[in-house]
Amino acid sequence: xxxxxxxxxxxxxxxxxxxxxxxxxxxxxxxxxxxxxxxxxxxxxxxxxxxxxxxxxxxxxxxxxxxxxxxxxxxxxxxxxxxxxxxxxxxxxxxxxxxxxxxxxxxxxxxxxxxxxxxxxxxxxxxxxxxxxxxxxxxxxxxxxxxxxxxxxxxxxxxxxxxxxxxxxxxxxxxxxxxxxxxxxxxxxxxxxxxxxxxxxxxxxxxxxxxxxxxxxxxxxxxxxx
Length: 226
Prior knowledge:
Elements: H1 4-9, E1 19-20, E2 23-25, H2 28-36, H3 42-57, H4 67-84, E3 90-92, E4 99-101, E5 107-113, H5 132-137, H6 142-146, E6 154-155, E7 162-168, E8 174-182, E9 185-196
Helix pairs in contact: 3-4
């Protein structure tokens, strides 16, 4: 029997709607099938979450107030690339957005710290406001990519690549979702795939799975004077 999300995604449309309803996938086997379709293993998403959340929780109160989010982001992007780069994904920095991209350039995946993940009651909000580059990226047209409709109330984006984010909150909940960004904020979602509510965290290994002995190129820290 086809998955419920597949039924919705494979319904070919004759006319693209202006507004669509968010598709939420939360049954584990359906989440796995959905992500496997795009060569994103659930195990990879959980490892990205483990590393990013571990860095978030390991910060000292003497560090800068933005240290948890900053470290989680940098190590989340690192682990995203460690886990996904290969036959199906390559590194991408287009528009200043750190992500991975599929070789045919039709889909990107990035990392995002959010206030709350995997909730049906409240949509995730980014921990920091998104800039104009991100806003342009996240306006990519999911419907041209799938050639199908998601099943009401978010404005359908136009043109560009499909951009998903691995979204992690303070509890360790993680989802892989497709947001729409307008005016620096998430204004809706096309699809949300709930991977974990964070209850599986135990004996968390905070170390990145990659070898960090190689030098990092093109790394600069901008310091503003006031």
